[in-house]
Amino acid sequence: MFRIESARIIAGVTRIVRDVGIAEELAQDALVAALERWPRAGVPDNPGAWLMATAKHRAIDLVRRQETYARKLAEVGRSLEDVPPPGAGDAVEDADGFDGIDGIDDDLLRLIFTACHPVLSTEARVALTLRLLGGLTTAEIARAFLVGEATVAQRIVRAKRTLAKAAVPFEVPYGADRAGRVASVLEVIYLVFNEGYSATAGDDLVRPALCEDALRLARVLAGLMPREPEVHGLVSLLEFQSSRIAARTGPDGEPVLLADQNRAHWNRPLMRRGAEALLRAGRGPYSVQAAIAACHARALRYEDTDWAAIAALYGRLMALTPSPVVELNRAVAVSMAEGPEAGLRVVDVLAGEPALKDYHLLPSVRGDLLERLGRRGEARAQFALAASLARNGRERQLLLERAERAERTARAAAGPDGS
């Protein structure tokens, strides 16, 4: 129950104390109170409201101790005295609208924008968002991103201090600042999902729990900001990508390439949700990526994929967010639409790109195109290079297997005398 309700409780308390670190501590104090009281008095009919009311009462006590209560009431602009004391068996109606009124949703939206504030580093934003909004423990975040628990704890502590030192307002941004702040929130959710969808390191290609956390946050954000087209674009993208997760790995967790995936294992309800969200999406980068994912979803077989449309969409994405990684993806689509020679020309232009120097997918794509052209010796060398750069164990093994297969094929084609 606490994990489900913690984000709303922290959001509601943050509006009172104006400090997410203190708000989280007060929410945890409410949990301790529940663990002490509920076994004796019974679980209340509305346990979420009980936790919220308890946390807010503790916040009020803290405010009273720190400064004049009347001054704080004026700052907050609400009559906090109306919050009823929690009863053990009573359903507690929160005076600030915990029963579903917009006030709590507004607080939750404020918390999202606070946790994803640009004053924080990307790593700090991700960790703080998963902690405050995802309900993950420090240990769970550390395991998900394969870093030390102490490192994650430091990131979270520093993030809270940074927010407090910068006096970041607990508010939903409007005006000129809004677009950049929304982009920051979307970036955090997208990064969390991507780490789950294709882990950068470790022995697991996919970490479904991270994908689920990111998709849930995206859906919550869409519910709180229904008029933001790019939010729906992100939701659409994540719904489509999530629909393919079960087919991306084999029985032993080995990667399964898109061409070899059993599309009967793609999740059709998630694909329908993706299509519905795409209808509300805009023309930004997440919306374009969602349109690309929709092209894959519409193809009942790999051979039916509209690669020309996908290549055109990647061209549009390049115009919105120029990136060598986007151009590499476009090269793949071009190779499927126009042939491997056309794709290789694009890839060769990227060969000297500094940003891709240690990016394992560049030689991986090049190896695939060379293999399709029958240049298997060169392909083997590219797959071996890609394997040496890959940080994910599953990807590395797949690339080594492709290198070995290319070498065997090259030897067989050369004949017994090597000619």
UniProtKB/TrEMBL annotation:
Domain DUF6596: 181-281
Keyword terms: Sigma factor, Transcription, Transcription regulation
UniProt cross-references to PANTHER family, sorted A to Z: BLL0085 PROTEIN (PTHR47756:SF1), BLL6612 PROTEIN-RELATED (PTHR47756)
GO terms for biological process, alphabetical: DNA-templated transcription initiation
Protein name: RNA polymerase subunit sigma-24
Keyword hit for GTP-binding: no
Residue ranges of every copy of the RNA polymerase sigma-70 region domain listed in the record: 8-67
Domain RNA polymerase sigma factor 70 region 4 type: 112-163
Similarity section: Belongs to the sigma-70 factor family. ECF subfamily.
Recorded GO MF terms: DNA binding; sigma factor activity
Annotated organism of origin: Streptomyces daliensis
Statement: the UniProt record of this protein carries the keyword Transcription regulation: yes
InterPro entries, sorted: DUF6596 (IPR046531), RNA_pol_sigma70_r2 (IPR007627), RNA_pol_sigma70_r4_t2 (IPR013249), RNA_pol_sigma_r2 (IPR013325), RNA_pol_sigma_r3/r4-like (IPR013324), WH-like_DNA-bd_sf (IPR036388)
